[in-house]
Amino acid sequence: MKNLLSGYDIEVCAGVSGLLEVAGREADWVMSAIVGYAGLLPGLAALEAGANLALANKESMVSAGPILKEVSNRKGVKIMPVDSEHSAISQVIRGENLDSLVKIIITASGVLLEIFQNLI
Q1: Which pLDDT value is given to residue 33?
Q2: 72 neighbors 79 (Cβ within 8 angstroms)
Q3: Which of 5, 8, 21, 28 is most buried, by the most CB atoms less than 10 A from its CB?
Q4: Which class for 98: exposed (0-12), middle (13-18), buried (19 or more C-beta within 10 A)?
């Protein structure tokens, strides 16, 4: 691919290192839509670089929600859910008394997982 595009002003990145390089570049917003847990490290790289994260990957939040939130808070950037399930949850609980929320059950890649209030 690099050889085919060498005459153009296009940079080719590949593999995990390429994902992290691209996700860690300066940007206002980064969309993380990589399927499964593979999207976690690029999402973290985007947050660490100071970008807001449009998260279309619920597995990242399920597996490392507290870490994503900590980095988001520390860097002063937002995480916005844009995938159907976690976007719907975000919309439903917005403005509600979170003390009344005991747990939310959501599937992730066919596996039943429980997301407790402190992960949202």
Answers
A1: 85
A2: yes
A3: 21
A4: exposed
Place of tokens 């949850």: 89
* φ, ψ dihedrals at 49, nearest 5°: -80, -5
Span 15-119: which CATH code? 3.40.50.720
Q: Which of 56, 44, 55, 47 is nearest to 76 (CA)?
A: 47
Length of the chain: 120
10-residue stretch averages of pLDDT, the chain, 120 residues long: 84 85 89 86 94 88 91 95 73 79 66 45
